[in-house]
Amino acid sequence: MTGPFHAVMFDLDGTLADTLADITNVGNYMLEKFDLPPMQEDRYRYLAGLGMHYLVSEALGDGNQHLVDQGVELAKAYQMEHGIDLAGPYPGVPQLLDQLIERKLKLAVLSNKQHPATQLVMQKLFSKWSFDAIWGVRPEYEPKPDPSSAKAMASELGIAPKNWLYLGDTDVDMQTATGAGFCAVGVLWGFRDESELRDNGAQHIIKHPSELLDLLQSS
What we know:
Helix content: 40-55%
CATH superfamily of the largest domain: HAD superfamily/HAD-like
CATH class of the largest domain: Alpha Beta
Shape: globular
CATH architecture of the largest domain: 3-Layer(aba) Sandwich
Mean pLDDT: 96
Strand content: 15-25%
C-alpha cells in the first residue's frame, strides 16, 4: 500500500450516492401531508447533510415549528419505504470502490441519515462491496460536524486519524474531517460547490472519483 493512508471514510448522500431526487420526494411528501406547498429540488440541495430534524424544520419554516416532531416521523417512515426509489451510485464510484478494495484499504461510511436508513441505502446500492463500518446517526454520538463519531469509528477499526482520507461534498463533511484529524477531500460531483468545501477545510478537491487514486499514488 502506497502512502500514509490506510482507510477511506465516505459521506453517503452526495458523495457515494446521488440521492437528491429521493430526498426531495421525502421532504415534499411530508409537506404534502400538512397541506403545504412543495419545494424545488435545488432547495433540498442545501437542506441535506445535517440530518432529518434540520431538513424538516427548515422545510416547514418558522410558522410551522409545532409540526416538526410529527414531520420528522412522517419523513423517516417514508424514507424507509421510498428513500432510494431513484438513487444510484455516482458515475465512477463503483470502479473506485473496486480499486480501493484491491489495494486493501479499509472502507467506512459515516452519514447524517438515521442509522437504519443509512444501512438500507448501503444494502440496496452497495452490497457488492465490503465496508468495514457503516454508521448513520447513532444516539451515543452527536451528528456531524461533531467529529466524535468519526473518531470513534477510526478507533474501532484501529487506524489512526492521520491515516484516514475522508470524502464528502458539504461544509459539514469538511468540518467533520478536520475536527477528527483526517485528511479532508472535497468532491465536486455532489450537492455543493468548491468554495464551500475549501472554506471549510478541504485539503484536496477532486472532480471525479478516479482522482482519489491519483491522490493515493502521490501520497
